[in-house]
Specification:
alpha+beta; 8-stranded mixed beta sheet; 5-stranded mixed β-barrel; 18 helices; 25% strand; globular
């Protein structure tokens, strides 16, 4: 027999009854029934119930062990009685009577529980991540993550892509987030950077003629953490294609991303609905901001925002009339079926808006066709009824209003749309709703620096090409740029690239950079484009966010092996840590302490 096991802890069934077996694993739980000890033995594959009584030499050994100790059990497989079968466990029809036990590693008193799913302080969970990873849900999430990545690879290869690995040590990028810098020992005073993304390398691969590239790429950005973004590093399904339009990118990638969601749609006994491949809605950025108040709309939410500014150009409600008259807008957010809601519901929404830093959230109530609230009273019941009829609102529907400058009103309306739907239980939690957001603005106005800046990816092709750059107001130019959104999360971003050296220079000149600046900052790409560059485009999908959605997790730490905390610290390994003086000398670096005060 094998030194440690003949079977895993998830393998035994009724067909094995009568066999002598050897199992190894962790003591998950112990239950002492007075002379009979039940032990749940756990390994990566599952759980098996071990039984030891006064006739078993294993009893004394197991009684003295703490949970999470590692043991080997020799014993006989027995059938459980019908009344003790556990239908929720693959091994629930059997148990193993322990004839002997060998302690492989005794556990000290645990700093945190492993059995059960109770909440526990994050600093403890991260410091003892090796224990945290033994917990059922987190362990299962990590397994799901590996399966998702394997499924992605299979689908990409099936679509004709080949995986290529791009460099990890590269040049610092002047665009985007902060780089992680790596000092060079050989070249004193110079630094490599960890890649924020393989953007330029994958474009160079297209210039080199590789046609369809992908990789599961590690990316590094020195950003502040948040629930849907990890500090330090993350992974993306990175891809690029030659001789394609954006429509062909979408048609290629919908079966890949949609297929991944379909493959993992089953959870907790339910099969979650997925937007069918080939039918992902394509929503222009401007429409998304108007209807949903966000460029990453949650389409599980049926509420649609409407611009009703024209309704208040002449109104008895003076505040809205003044806002519209001075160039502002009024957006309406329906609150369906709220006739039975008390005034408190509406007032609390208004209080919430103020707590979020907005001036307030106006509202109108309606019950049995009768309107309530100061806006309806001042605007007039007839005008309000006509507005409700125009928008298809019913006699028992209320609504909220976000008013102000267009950008502020859109932000408030979008947040209110989400909150109203959540409060009213309108969001279908058992579905994945995917859509493309398209036609992003190429430029935006930087109010702080009083200049035009790129709004997204500077390497994108502007719609209209050189002619648009030369003859259009920059703030009216859209890009061949797109995001893939699922359930309110941006899960991918991409574009058709600007592969023309002249167009590239002109695009950067508009934001104040010269041809010399382009040659210095993006020399590799700029030179490559002068030697025959195919039209190309692609995207990058966030592996971490996709896995988070599939697992139903609320935080990326719940699907990541060894994440950092909110302060970008690895509590398990003690990083970041000071470097030894010898190391600093080798790297020609001196640490200068920041001045306090």
């Amino acid at each position: 027999m094998h030194l440690y096991r003949s079977h895993t802890c998830g393998a035994l069934t009724r067909s094995d009854v009568g066999q002598t077996v050897r199992l190894s694993g962790w003591v998950h739980r112990k239950r002492d029934h007075g002379g009979v000890l039940f032990v749940d033995l756990r390994d990566h594959y599952g759980m098996t119930q071990i039984v030891a009584d006064v006739d078993s030499p294993a009893l004394a050994i197991l009684e003295g062990l703490r949970v999470e100790s590692v043991v080997t059990i020799d014993g006989e497989v027995k059938a459980r009685s019908d009344s003790t079968v556990n239908p929720n466990l693959p091994t629930g029809a059997i148990e193993v009577y322990a004839r002997g036990a060998t302690v492989l590693s005794a556990a000290e008193e645990l700093p945190m529980p492993v059995a059960g799913e109770q909440e526990y302080p994050e600093d403890i969970r991260l410091r003892y991540r090796f224990l945290d990873l033994r917990r059922e849900t987190l362990h299962a999430n990590i397994v799901t993550r590996t399966k998702v990545i394997s499924d992605m690879r299979r689908r990409m290869e099936g679509a004709g892509f080949t995986e290529y690995s791009t460099p990890i040590l590269t040049a610092s990028s002047p665009e985007g987030a902060r780089d992680f810098l790596v000092p060079s020992r050989i070249h004193a005073g110079k630094f490599y950077a960890l890649p924020q993304a393989p953007q330029q390398y994958k474009q160079l691969l297209m210039v080199a003629g590789f046609d369809r590239y992908f990789q599961i790429a590690p990316c590094f950005r020195d950003e502040d953490p948040r629930a849907d973004r990890l500090p330090g590093e993350f992974y993306q399904l990175d891809l690029e294609m030659s001789f394609v339009t954006q429509e062909e990118v979408w048609e290629t990638m919908e079966p890949v991303i949609g297929g991944v969601f379909e493959a993992f749609a089953a959870k907790d006994g339910k099969v979650r609905k997925v937007t069918p491949t080939g039918s992902f809605p394509r929503i222009p950025y401007a429409e998304a901001m108007l209807k949903y108040g966000s460029d990453k709309p949650d389409l599980r939410n049926p509420i649609i925002i409407s611009d009703v500014s024209d309704e208040f150009t002449q109104s008895g409600f003076g505040l809205f009339e003044k806002i519209v008259g001075t160039g502002g807008v009024v957006r309406l957010i329906p609150a369906p079926g709220t006739a039975e809601k008390s005034r408190k519901f509406f007032d609390e929404m208004n209080d919430w808006a103020r707590a979020e830093g907005h001036a307030g959230l106006g509202y109108v109530t309606r019950k049995g066709g009768e309107f309530g609230g100061p806006i309806a009273k001042n605007h007039g019941a007839d005008k309000m009824a006509a507005l409700f009829d125009k928008l298809g609102l019913g006699p028992d529907d209320g609504c909220f209003f976000a008013a102000g400058k267009a950008e502020q009103a859109a932000k408030l309306a979008g947040a209110a749309r989400t909150r109203v739907a959540d409060q009213l239980g309108l969001i279908d939690k058992d579905s994945f709703e995917l859509c493309w957001i398209v036609d992003f603005p190429f430029y935006e106005w930087d109010e702080e620096n009083k200049k035009v800046e790129f709004s997204h990816n500077p390497f994108s092709m502007p719609q209209g090409g050189m002619d648009a750059l030369c003859n259009q107001d920059p703030l009216t130019i859209n890009a061949f740029q797109y995001d893939l959104v699922c359930n309110g999360f941006e899960i991918a971003s991409g574009s058709i690239r600007n592969q023309s050296p002249e167009t590239m220079v002109k695009a950067f000149e508009i934001v104040g950079l010269s041809k010399q600046d382009v040659e210095e900052r993006f020399g590799g790409l700029y030179r490559a484009f002068q030697y025959g560059a195919p039209p190309h485009g692609g995207m990058a999908a966030g592996v971490d966010r996709i896995v988070m959605l599939i697992c139903g997790a609320q935080n990326l730490r719940e699907i990541t092996l060894f994440p950092m905390n909110q302060r970008a610290e690895d509590l398990l390994m003690g990083a970041p840590s000071p470097a030894a003086l010898k190391q600093l000398r080798e790297l020609n670096i001196r640490v200068v302490e920041q001045t306090k005060g």
